[in-house]
């Protein structure tokens, strides 16, 4: 039987089958792989494809303890992955680059010919709800981080992520929260979230925020967000290099995107925001800095110069339909919104309509949960697929 040292070595010396590069990032052919199979795996295994681990948390520990150079990939097979603790990605003796990344991805991706939604690894969060968040006592009753990113150059791809089975507000003043993917350091860069499906329900499994990230270069594309409170929070005032492209936000009861004084180079295009409370929360840079400082964040100066408010953003080739309001301003988990003038949103090729968007309900269809094929919303190209669906 392998001891722990041998198991770690086997996981990072190519004991898995040959690496199959994902479509989004240039990957090294010699990249190390760790496989996770919740049905057939064991956390005492090597992590090779033939001897997979059982939990994502153990795979992250292997990455964090490993050393060397080049890309590293955690591959999740289809099935139900129980997330009983925060998945911490914090390698101590290994760094990554834009071309040699740390990737957490599904074995089968949406553009693969044998993919269907049932093959997406399904992450169900069952961890205890801590009474702290971001290193401080939480006055709102507690918050959990599903995945905590503590390194640059990370890709998360092809996963289905569900919320936390709690009552969000069991008593007045409490807001119990899940942050599915978090990056809370301002000195990090280059986080890619792609082809993921984020689902929540405010009654049974609230998903407070799908992605919340400090630092630069947060690129969210080809994702679906349904029934959440907030889809993506770009949280560092003055940060840049961000993008949100080809995403479908449906029935989001907070807002489809949250920006905290980020730079005007925000690449926002080909998104469908439908049946939501607000399309956009625009928090000022000064407010964002104060909010972060109150939650243990680093000083705003670490993220670069703060832009003047309000910053204007280009909204390109998108479709906003059946939403209650276009823009609001607010701060904190309570979402104390105030309606604001949406003129900071410079529309280009973007349609705004009061008509709701119909989505595909047939689970056997490849475009399940996407805008119905042939509709105006579907023509925008939002959804899980990098290639058009035939």
Helix content: under 10%
Helical run tally: 3
Using the CA coordinates, give the radius of gyration. 20 Å
Shape: globular
The parts where pLDDT drops under 50 for at least 5 residues are: 1-31, 295-307
Structural classification? mainly beta
Biggest sheet, spatial arrangement of strands: 1-2-5-10-13-16-19-22-25-29
**Mean pLDDT over all positions:** 88
- What is the tally of beta strands? 30
Strand content: 25-35%
Oligomer: single chain
Strand and helix map with partners:
Elements: H1 4-11, E1 32-36, H2 56-65, E2 72-76, E3 79-83, E4 87-89, E5 102-106, E6 121-125, E7 132-133, E8 136-137, E9 143-149, E10 154-157, E11 160-161, E12 177-183, E13 189-194, E14 197-199, E15 209-213, E16 216-221, E17 224-226, E18 230-234, E19 243-245, E20 248-250, E21 255-260, E22 267-269, E23 272-274, E24 278-283, H3 285-293, E25 313-316, E26 319-321, E27 325-329, E28 338-339, E29 345-348, E30 351-353
Task: List descriptors.
32% strand, 390 residues, disordered N terminus, 30 strands
Structural write-up:
There is one protein chain. This protein has 390 residues and is mainly beta. It has a domain at 108-357. The protein is 7% helix and 32% strand. It contains 3 helices and 30 strands. The protein has helices at 4-11, 56-65, 285-293; strands at residues 32-36, 72-76, 79-83, 87-89, 102-106, 121-125, 132-133, 136-137, 143-149, 154-157, 160-161, 177-183, 189-194, 197-199, 209-213, 216-221, 224-226, 230-234, 243-245, 248-250, 255-260, 267-269, 272-274, 278-283, 313-316, 319-321, 325-329, 338-339, 345-348, 351-353. The chain has a 10-stranded parallel sheet, covered by helices on one side. The protein is globular and about 55 Å long. Mean pLDDT is 88; it is low at 1-31 and 295-307.
């Amino acid at each position: 039987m392998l001891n722990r040292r041998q198991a770690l070595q086997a996981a990072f010396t190519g004991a898995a089958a040959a690496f199959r590069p994902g479509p989004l990032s240039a990957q090294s052919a010699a990249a190390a792989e760790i496989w996770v199979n919740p049905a057939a795996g064991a956390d005492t295994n090597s992590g090779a494809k033939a001897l997979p681990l059982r939990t994502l948390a153990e795979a992250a520990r292997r990455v964090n303890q490993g050393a060397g150079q080049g890309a590293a990939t955690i591959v999740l097979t289809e099935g139900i992955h129980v997330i009983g603790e925060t998945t911490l990605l914090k390698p101590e003796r290994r760094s990554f680059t834009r071309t040699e990344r740390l990737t957490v991805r599904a074995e089968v991706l949406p553009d693969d010919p044998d993919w269907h939604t049932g093959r997406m690894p399904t992450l169900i969060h069952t961890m205890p709800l801590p009474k702290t968040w971001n290193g401080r006592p939480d006055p709102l009753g507690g918050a959990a981080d599903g995945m905590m990113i503590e390194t640059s150059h990370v890709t998360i791809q092809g996963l289905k992520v569900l919320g936390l089975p709690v009552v969000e507000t069991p008593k007045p003043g409490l807001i119990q929260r899940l942050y599915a993917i978090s990056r809370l350091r301002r000195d990090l860069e280059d986080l890619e979230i792609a082809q993921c499906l984020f689902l929540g329900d405010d009654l049974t499994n609230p998903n407070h925020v799908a992605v919340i990230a400090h630092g630069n270069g947060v690129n969210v594309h080809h994702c679906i967000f349904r029934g959440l409170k907030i889809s993506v929070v770009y949280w560092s005032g003055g940060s840049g290099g961000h993008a949100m492209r080809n995403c479908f936000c449906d029935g989001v009861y907070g807002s489809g995107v949250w920006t905290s004084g980020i730079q005007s180079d925000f690449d926002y295009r080909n998104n469908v925001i439908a049946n939501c409370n607000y399309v956009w929360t625009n928090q000022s840079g000064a407010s964002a800095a104060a909010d972060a400082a109150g939650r243990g964040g680093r000083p705003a100066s670490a993220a670069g110069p703060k832009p003047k408010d309000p910053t204007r953003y280009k909204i390109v080739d998108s479709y906003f339909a059946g939403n209650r309001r276009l823009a609001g301003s607010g701060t904190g988990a309570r979402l104390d919104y105030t309606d604001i003038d949406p003129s900071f949103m410079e529309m280009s090729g973007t349609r705004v309509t009061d008509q709701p968007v119909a989505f595909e309900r047939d689970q056997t269809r490849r475009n399940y949960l996407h805008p119905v094929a042939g509709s105006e919303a579907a023509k925008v190209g939002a959804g899980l697929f990098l290639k058009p669906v035939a």
